[in-house]
Amino acid sequence: MPEQVLQRAAKDVKVSIKNKLNEREISQRQLAEMLGVGETILTNAIRGDVSPQAIRLRTDIYKILGMNEQEV
Fold this sequence. Notes:
The protein has helices at residues 2-23, 28-35, 39-47, 52-64. By secondary structure, the protein is mainly alpha-helical.
């Protein structure tokens, strides 16, 4: 059960970020460049990776896209 909750939360984060990218007409490649990371690292963070690096990266993504964590 807890695993399903985590998977659902990760999916919600992914959808929210992708929607904001579309709204702002920013590609994942452009976002990766803005953040100074590779696309693979960015993709993993968007998909819900729980490593400290991915968590910090998501915080930076939220700032760039004008999101707050409650919005996700």
